[in-house]
Amino acid sequence: MKTIRILAVDDHEMSTMGYKFILEDTEFDDFKVFVDTAKTFDAAVEKIENSVNSFQYDILLLDIQLSQAVEGPAKTGEDIGIFARKVIPKTKIVFMSSFSDNYRINSILKTVDPEGYMVKTEIDQKSLQAMVLTVLNNPPYYTQKALAAIRKKMANDDIVLDEKDKKILHFLSIGTKTKDMVNHVSLSLPSIENRKRHLKSVFGVEKQNDQALITESRNRGFI
Amino acid sequence: MKTIRILAVDDHEMSTMGYKFILEDTEFDDFKVFVDTAKTFDAAVEKIENSVNSFQYDILLLDIQLSQAVEGPAKTGEDIGIFARKVIPKTKIVFMSSFSDNYRINSILKTVDPEGYMVKTEIDQKSLQAMVLTVLNNPPYYTQKALAAIRKKMANDDIVLDEKDKKILHFLSIGTKTKDMVNHVSLSLPSIENRKRHLKSVFGVEKQNDQALITESRNRGFI
DNA sequence: ATGAAACCTTATATATTCTATGGTTTTTAT
DNA sequence: ATAAAAACCATAGAATATATAAGGTTTCAT
To answer: CB distance A106–B139 less than 8 Å?
Structure first.
């Protein structure tokens, strides 16, 4: 019988062990599953590299946030995904993330375009099994919370914000004063005001205060 | 026991009857289902209007293409959805469509943002029942083919085309010659050439012919 | 009441995009 | 193989949109 090889990457050993026990104990029709695990970015990359010229994993289960071994730029599950797409493009990638916020999901769906995205609170035995089957045969597999975020994005797909708009929204959301934004956004004060006005009109909160703008951008998944 | 009221709109009576028989025969835990049907745009709108000040439907099942009663601008299920969102915003809307092309799905997801989208070839008893439950309790519900289209869109979300770009791609795909496009796009010939060049660079098919551009835009779900 | 920040307006400057023109290369039909 | 048609490319000037500077008004907190 065919063996499906899975590599589960998560700094919480309990998670990877959970995936391993559940999936290896499941009786699939056409195959059995073997789950390999890795706890760090480096360990995961090494296992992937070793697999390139031999068996190659069928599925990668990636947590997004991994604890850092050394100081420096954060090495996340997203980076593992980007790396894996290059060296083993045929391997299916599924993110297992505690993040259900739109911003993060949107980012992952663009940079890696994974075959699956599961929000951790929605993972259980049944969904894990369904995920494996769907990802292998007829991707993608998204859990409900991921789907809800995706739906929001699709509904607001006509609204396009450039980097400056996003920065303005971000600084606004953390309470930065408009006049202080010139230090962060590389635009003149009137331009920033102008863009804020424009954003308010785009989000349908004309003539309302900044709080309304922040709330609405959050609702639509832009912050 | 609570009754869930559904209005199914489709010009093929076989479809609406199928939904009716299956759903009314299903034993749901907390409710039973009553399915009303309509075969035309006008009949559907009338039933919706009549419901506004009385029971109000819980779910609308809408086919996109409806046969035309009179000549004139096509009145589609999409229009019914837009109308329903205005007069009965709390009613859940699900499209039951033969279209699985990206363009159509993307459009619907923006204009109506329905709680569900089912591609007809994927509809069966089980999926119908799951759809009702999901849409009522935890939307959205999309079938796999719809999901595949949505995934494509999300992965290419950074590429933004305006109306003129879309027209150029469309006319290109139906074999219109570049020089003839000036009659359709309201741009000068050099501008069209320029946009084509730009599109090719955006889609990563620089220095290749138009066929490559068309193929790539199709792959990414823009045509 | 007063100062600070936010908000708005107008004129000018800057940048982007479109067009017109004229050329070169590629394709197509004979 | 060759001539005509279409596609492709480059440049300069026109049109459009966006940013800035300067100055005024409104709003809010103390």
So the answer is: no
At A120 the pLDDT is 96
Q: What is the pLDDT of residue A73?
A: 81
Residue of B nearest to A110 (CA): B155
Chain B interface, Cβ < 8 Å to A: 106, 109-110, 113, 134, 138-140, 142, 144, 147-148, 150-151, 153-155, 157-158, 160
Chain-chain contact of B142 with A138 (C-beta, under 8 angstroms)? no
For range A78-93, the mean pLDDT:
97
The class that CATH gives domain B2-154 is alpha beta
The CATH T-level fold of domain A2-155 is Rossmann fold (3.40.50)
Distance from B64 to chain A by nearest Cα, in Å? 18
Residue linked to tokens 């991707």: A139
- What are A138-181's pLDDT values in tens digits? 999 999 999 999 999 999 988 889 999 999 999 999 999 999 99
